[in-house]
Amino acid sequence: MVYHGTDPTLSPRARGRLGFALGLAFVALAIFSLGKLSAEQPAAKHAAPGPVGRRVPNFVLKDAAGETQSLADFSEKRAVVLVFVSTECPVANQYLPIAQELAKKFADRSVQFLAIYSSPSDTAETIAAHQKQFKLTLPALYDRDQQVLQSVGAERTAEAFVLDARSVIRYHGRIDDRYGYDYHRDTAKRNDLEIALDELLDHREISVPSTSAQGCAITRRESDSATGKITYCNQVARILQEKCQTCHRPGAAAPFSLLEPDAAVHWSEMIKQVVLERRMPPWYADARYGKFSNDRRLSQDQIDTLVGWIDQGTPLGDTSQLPARREFSEGWTLGKPDVVFELPEEVTVPATGTVPYRYFETPTNFKEDVWIQAAEARPGNRAAVHHIIAFYRDPKGGKQRVNDQWIAGTAPGDMALILPPGVGRRIPAGATIVWQVHYTPTGKVEQDRSQLGLVFCKGKEPPKYNVATHGIGNHRFLIPAGDANFQVESEMKLPGDVTILSFMPHMHLRGKDFLYRAIYSDGRSETLLSVPRYSFAWQSNYRCAEPIHLPKGTRLQCVAHYDNSADNPANPDPAKTIGWGDQTWDEMMIGYVDYIPGNVSISLAGPKQAVQTAAMKK
């Protein structure tokens, strides 16, 4: 289916009218004092450089009523404005009525304003009282851990950030020039935020993309970095081992290794930037829906630790506190395989041009059925291989490609298949490995001979359950040229009970977001996975922390949106109507699911890591 802070010594009433009721002189003095105090605060070190042009990661915060709201909830808006406020800052309080007027003015033009409270002195209770006192109609979001403040690089209250439809910062700075440390005007000489919004919505270049806000400096919450307690040996090495080294090591997907302390020091500024922007480790699931065992996100404490260590000058620390080195099988993330297959020939990839998908076949020569617990498709040349999908062909099923059964695959950001104990994937005797390989020219002639590694299930008896992979796809869609939010749906009605183990959405360069939803027979619906910022560059399998049981008759629905507009920087041709196709400049819509037929009781927490650890010790 296709579809298209106010001064605490003042009374509440006086605080609400500060600057207007008490007169120009008092306001100038108060603001000047605040400015002087702000100047004494240490320079903000947690802000990644250059806010304008930075894409803001999705965030989930609680509002004043305790309900969660996400930046992704406003993905259909043409712009989102983040205004940093505080319950105790008179400058921010003066700008609240102005921000609310602007929010009303631009509501009809699909602009959403959000009030962000990041000050350490704010609490959920004081924010709720502040919202009531000032009759704040904007969503009031509590940035308790300062994740939003750090991701955009905010430094002061009354500082505004304009995000376009792709959450890229297009303007940041003051709302207008009405209030400053030593002046107060009844009217503004320049309405900076309003002008920036008009220019953005009219598809014009923003004439002044950055200005200086005059609010109160926002103090960063205290961490170990303030006392110099963070060292590589004591804290940083453990974070890198847990979250980074699976990819950042020789022979793996990342462009540089982080196995040694010197490498972490050399790449420290890049590390700081990508963790603050939450680009690394890559993870795109909305935290409100589902729990996943392979969640790669850094916690806020881990981000603060890495950034604090870098801001301190990357001290090594006591080497006796260094954790044991994590050992890897060279080139394999699942450990040493029991058997390795490779392409039947070395492939030459031209320097330029388009390379159609290549298909190859490799006999397994299995004399009897085998059960695999883990599988990994390993590119022989990561620069030239975009993705690999390995299937098996049952000799009893004929040579029709439609009969090929999924084994494993790899794409940027994906992980090796590792199944929990008691679950395996059966490959029949005499099966043939069928490879689909997508090559991308790099500017020079490349060679490749990719491999597939399998780890067999252990024990005398075969596993109790055989996992299957199904793609819930829609091939019949046409995305109109210039459409920034085109919706495509697909679904399947379950013929029996199923137990879902994982999800993997797949789209190409115009993919914007992807959602899996269960619609039960009684009409109830439940979001199982939401990926509000789909990235073709980082495609991931989302493995459930606990199995999801769906009864017979449930409709498993996938909903995807595509951005075929000129505002999508990855769009190959916004003037072209796009349909289904293999190449990246075409589009696809598939919601893959790994599942076991029936309502079965298995544990998914922990065993996958145990399998991986055991394999690595071989």
What does this structure look like?
It contains eleven helices and 30 strands. With 618 residues, the protein is an alpha+beta fold. It folds into four domains: 5-201, Glutaredoxin; 224-321, no CATH class; 339-464 and 606-616, Jelly Rolls; 468-597, Jelly Rolls (Sandwich), CATH 2.60.120.230. The strands form seven sheets. A seven-stranded mixed β-sheet has the order 3-2-6-5-4-7-8. Strands 11, 14, 17, 18, 21 and 22 form a six-stranded mixed β-sheet that branches. α3 (90-107) links the parallel β4 (79-85) and β5. α7 crosses α10 and α9 runs antiparallel to α10. The protein is globular and about 85 Å long. The two termini are 49 Å apart.
Layout of SSEs?
Elements: E1 2-3, H1 12-16, H2 24-39, E2 60-63, E3 68-70, E4 79-85, H3 90-107, E5 111-117, H4 124-133, E6 140-142, H5 147-152, E7 160-164, E8 169-173, E9 179-180, E10 183-184, H6 192-201, H7 232-243, H8 261-266, H9 268-276, H10 300-311, E11 339-342, E12 347-349, E13 358-363, E14 370-378, E15 385-393, E16 405-410, E17 417-418, E18 423-427, E19 432-439, E20 446-448, E21 451-456, E22 465-466, E23 468-473, E24 486-493, E25 498-506, E26 511-519, E27 525-531, E28 542-550, E29 555-562, E30 590-597, H11 607-616
Parallel strand pairs: 4-5, 5-6, 18-22
Antiparallel strand pairs: 1-24, 2-3, 2-6, 4-7, 7-8, 9-10, 11-21, 12-20, 13-19, 14-17, 14-18, 14-21, 15-16, 15-19, 23-30, 24-29, 25-28, 25-30, 26-27, 26-29
Helix pairs in contact: 7-10, 9-10
